[in-house]
């Protein structure tokens, strides 16, 4: 076993463990807050779905890291199909949830004289429907993955286009281009919404800062809750874009140049899982009051309705 395979395996295992821990802690605090009857913010539902999607994405790191340590670890026929299918679905939901979070925050901070201001009241009502639609679209878009996924023992006499070490994806033939267009279009739509919303938020923040600088400066150096929430979401989006682009570059290198070494493939998987692993720790800072709520409620027997979350 090469040293770099071991190094990548350690990174994958550590990344998966920390990511699952962070997402589980964040999700547990939401559950405690809901059971305590605490008033929830509209964005909480989006973050919950994002956290669940991140946990599913990280589950792939378990067989992937095991494969990096052991060259003889394979999943069975059914496990291969379910692992790759739900990994892609969860990845799409993670992208869609991040995009929806950006769009909702852009609507929230929009000026009262803008066209988006008319949606401020109605937008929270459509969050649940939007998230349900996001899950449904991803389940349908990637429904073909189980058809063209098989275990290692099924690779004889077939053309393989992707080898994950523990299972493989076979060549769909003439449908390959159609699938590529479908999958790319799905990502581009969410990416476009995310970029537009993020750009709009940056524009609004800069414009607001310039207009109110002479008022806010003598009062308090602390920014408004809306600005802090927007900064958190912009940081989240920036991390997603950064790691996703690197993952695409590595995947393209493997595909185009036929560099099918195991360690490079595992590196691409590790980069793709960076956002789900880092995401909860970025959100923990924003939801610091939620963690104080969990600590308070865990030491009190009285109802905690008086404690509210920050935006």
CATH topology: Rhopdopsin 7-helix transmembrane proteins
CATH class identity? Mainly Alpha
State the share of residues found in helices, binned by percent. Answer: over 70%
Total strands: 3
The rounded distance between the terminal residues' Cα atoms is 49 Å
As for the number of domains, it is: 1
H and E string = HHHHHEEEHHHHH
Write up this protein.
- The chain is mostly helical and 311 residues long.
- It has one domain (3-298): Rhodopsin 7-helix transmembrane proteins (Rhopdopsin 7-helix transmembrane proteins), CATH 1.20.1070.10.
- 70% of the residues lie in helices and 3% in strands.
- The protein is built from ten helices and three strands; from the N terminus they run H-H-H-H-H-E-E-E-H-H-H-H-H.
- The protein has a three-stranded antiparallel beta sheet with strand order 1-3-2.
- A hairpin with a 4-residue loop joins strand 2 (160-163) and strand 3 (168-170).
- Helix 1 (3-35) packs antiparallel against helix 2 (42-59) and helix 4 packs parallel to helix 6 (176-219).
- It is globular.
Characterize this entry briefly.
The protein has 311 residues and is an all-alpha fold.
Which helices and strands appear, and what pairs or packs with what?
Elements: H1 3-35, H2 42-59, H3 61-69, H4 77-108, H5 127-141, E1 149-150, E2 160-163, E3 168-170, H6 176-219, H7 225-256, H8 262-272, H9 274-286, H10 288-298
Antiparallel strand pairs: 1-3, 2-3
């Amino acid at each position: 076993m090469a040293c770099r395979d071991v190094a990548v395996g350690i990174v994958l295992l550590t990344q998966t463990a920390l990511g699952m821990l962070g997402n589980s802690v964040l999700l547990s605090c939401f559950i405690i807050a809901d059971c305590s009857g605490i008033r929830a913010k509209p964005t909480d539902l989006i973050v919950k779905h994002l956290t669940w999607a991140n946990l599913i994405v990280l589950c792939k790191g378990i067989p992937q890291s095991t494969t990096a340590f052991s060259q003889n670890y394979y999943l069975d026929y059914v496990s291969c199909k379910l692992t790759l299918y739900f990994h892609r679905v969860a990845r799409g939901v993670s992208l869609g949830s991040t995009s929806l979070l950006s769009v909702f925050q852009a609507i929230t901070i929009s000026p009262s004289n803008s066209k988006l201001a008319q949606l401020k009241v109605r937008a929270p009502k459509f969050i649940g429907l939007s998230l349900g639609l996001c899950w449904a679209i991803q389940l349908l878009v990637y429904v073909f993955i189980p058809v063209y996924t098989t275990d290692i023992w099924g690779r004889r006499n077939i053309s393989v286009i992707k080898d994950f070490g523990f299972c493989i994806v076979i060549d769909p033939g003439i449908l390959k281009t159609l699938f590529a267009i479908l999958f790319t279009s799905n990502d581009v739509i969410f990416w476009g919404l995310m970029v537009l919303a993020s750009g709009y938020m940056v524009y609004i923040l800069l414009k607001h800062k310039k207009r109110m600088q002479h008022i806010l400066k003598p009062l308090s150096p602390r920014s408004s809750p809306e600005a802090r929430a927007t900064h958190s979401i912009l940081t989240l989006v920036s991390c997603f874009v950064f790691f996703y682009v690197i993952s695409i570059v590595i995947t393209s290198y493997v595909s185009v140049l036929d560099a099918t070494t195991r360690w490079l493939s595992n590196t691409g998987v590790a980069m793709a899982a960076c956002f789900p692993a880092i995401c909860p720790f970025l959100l923990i800072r924003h939801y610091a009051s939620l963690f104080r709520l969990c600590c308070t409620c865990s030491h009190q027997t009285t109802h905690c309705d008086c404690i509210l979350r920050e935006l």
